[in-house]
Amino acid sequence: MHKSVAEALLEIEAVFLSPSKPFTWASGIKSPIYCDNRLILSYPKQRKMIEKAFAEMILKHYPGVEVIMGTSTAGIAHAAIVADYLELPMGYVRNSEKNHGRQNAIEGKLKPNQNVVVVEDLISTAGSVLNVVETIRAEGGNVLGIASLFTYELEKGLKRLKEYHVKNVSLSNFTELLEVALKNQSITEAEAKKCILFQKNPTSSTWFDGS
After folding, report:
1. pLDDT value of residue 100
2. Burial class of 62 by CB neighbour count within 10 A (0 to 12, 13 to 18, 19+)
3. How sure is the predictor about 99, in pLDDT bands with cuts at 50, 70 and 90?
4. What whole-number distance in Å separates Cα of residue 65 and Cα of residue 135?
5. 172 to 83, 144, 150: CA distances (angstroms)
6. What is the pLDDT of residues 35-80, one digit of tens each?
7. Is 181 helix (H, G, I), strand (E, B) or coil?
8. CA distances from 125 to 95, 205, 210 (A)
9. Left, alpha or beta for 148 (phi > 0: left; psi -120 to 50: alpha)?
10. 3-class SS at 30?
């Protein structure tokens, strides 16, 4: 499943590798990889395969799930489709509370002690998704864990998830994506080495020259 998802992400360029011309993240980090999993929504064949795999992964790892909650905004559409597959209630968590109406932080119905799975499109340092987890917990929900489309497997993110006692399972990850990219010759061995160096220390620019 993981490699099939990685192949689909590369095929539609939802994940794009460019070690020679790195991308700049919002944080200022120079990265050889860029993810835009919203593109999945524009490709029916890949979308159907990925969302079905998403639903199956959630049932396998979180069999007691009662509610699907998406992250705002990238996780909302995926959460809606997955919830439809599973015939479960769905909602999403806002980046911040509304300043009008009922001032909701959570959109959708969440009952006290309901078992929730958070659907996220991408995990890097895990800061934003953990804010979502904390919001759900504060509203009385029981977060079983996170189901994400892709993870960079960054040490900082893995450490944060462990500190918050939050489980994450992903449809695909950085390691498997590189394996697929090498196999289909999307990148060279030298470029793959740069990507691995970046993953080990993303805040350092030394990965670019292979050092």
Report:
1. 45
2. buried
3. very low
4. 18
5. 20, 20, 5
6. 999 999 999 999 999 999 999 999 999 999 999 999 998 999 999 9
7. helix
8. 17, 17, 23
9. beta
10. strand
Structure tokens that stand for 15 in this block:
């994940």
Q: Is residue 136 within 8 Å of residue 162, measured between CB atoms?
A: no
> CA torsion sign, 42 to 176 to 172 to 28?
negative
Q: What are the φ/ψ torsions at residue 170 (nearest 5 degrees)?
A: -125, 145
| pLDDT score recorded for residue 195 | 94
Percent of the chain whose predicted confidence (pLDDT) is above 90: 84
Tokens 């700049």 map to which residue? Answer: 24
Distances (CA, A) of 37 to 32, 191, 209: 16, 22, 28
Do the beta carbons of residue 154 and residue 160 sit within 8 Å?
A: no
Percentages of the chain per state (helix, strand, coil), in multiples of 5: 45, 20, 35
The first and second tokens of residue 142, run together, are 């029981």
Residue 101: predicted pLDDT: 43
